[in-house]
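Sequence in, structure out. Go.
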Amino acid sequence: MKFSPSKINTFLLFKLPSAWLCGVRLKRITDYKTLVTVKYRWINQNPFNSMYFAVQAMAAELSTGALVMKTIKNQPQKISMLVASMEGEFLKKAVGKIYFTCEDGILLEETLKNVLKNSEEGQVCKLTSIGKNEAGEIISKFTFNWTLKVKI
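Output:
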């Protein structure tokens, strides 16, 4: 699969329909950075007139996970990926359009080099996604610990 926003968004529709229904969309992906958006709507609201935290987590996970998927696709060996843990911090009310970015592509490449060198051992890569509103204010921060291991 080619890693373009339209291909990943189609993947969401069929493999992660709850994220797709809530409006989570990949807008940009490069070797080192991703941009995911989600807009506050009725379908993703909480009782406090802002975006439900789990919707923010889905968008943040996609920003890190799409980067992992793109990076491992280009490796000489098949590599498994799995979220080992996640941590979230919520700083402001999420209303309007929220932009989640992950800019940890270099860290991910370094981790994958270690995975390929030590094929028996899995490695953990800590990737961060920062959610900002349309004014550029930080709304939430997420850290995902991705476990990466060569498939045997």
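Check: The chain has a mean pLDDT of 95. Residues 5-150 form a domain with the Thiol Ester Dehydrase; Chain A fold (CATH 3.10.129.10).
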